[in-house]
Amino acid sequence: MTGEKSNFLSLTAAEGGTVAFGNGKSRTIVGIGKIGESLSHSIDYVYLVDGLKHNLLNVSQLCNKDNLVVFLPTRCLVVNMNTADVVLRGKQHKNVYKICISSLP
After folding, report:
1. pLDDT reading at 18 higher than 70
2. How far apart are CA 94 and CA 8, in angstroms?
3. What does each C-alpha distance from 97 to 16, 24, 59 come to in angstroms?
4. What pTM value is reported for the model?
């Protein structure tokens, strides 16, 4: 999920839908698309959510693309299970792992 339209390589308007958060608030899904640096290194079915201030990745979306997500004490790795290539790297900051989309190979 992201609130930043400029992150998308392609985007289709969504017909309704909301995302609920742990604090009881919800936001409207306004689009669904693909983000990344190129079509070959991208993540599909990412929601564009109205008013979202942070970008959030769903671990299952990464795993569904034949990746293994490894969480370590100070970092995380996303490894392609077919090639054994590390496709994303992240660093832990407090209780969140941060991955920079521009770090896609």
Report:
1. yes
2. 27
3. 29, 23, 11
4. 0.72
Q: Above 60 in pLDDT, residue 105?
A: no
Q: Which two tokens stand for residue 51?
A: 């008013």
- 53 and 3 Cβ atoms separated by less than 8 Å: yes
The residue among 6, 9, 95, 19 whose CA lies nearest residue 52 is: 19
- pLDDT for 61: 82
Query: How far apart, in Å, are the Cα atoms of 83 and each of 58, 66, 69?
Result: 22, 10, 14
Mean predicted confidence (pLDDT) in 39-68: 84
Q: Which two tokens stand for residue 104?
A: 């896609």
pLDDT at 49 over 90: yes
Give the closest residue to 30 by CA, choosing from 53, 9, 7, 46: 46
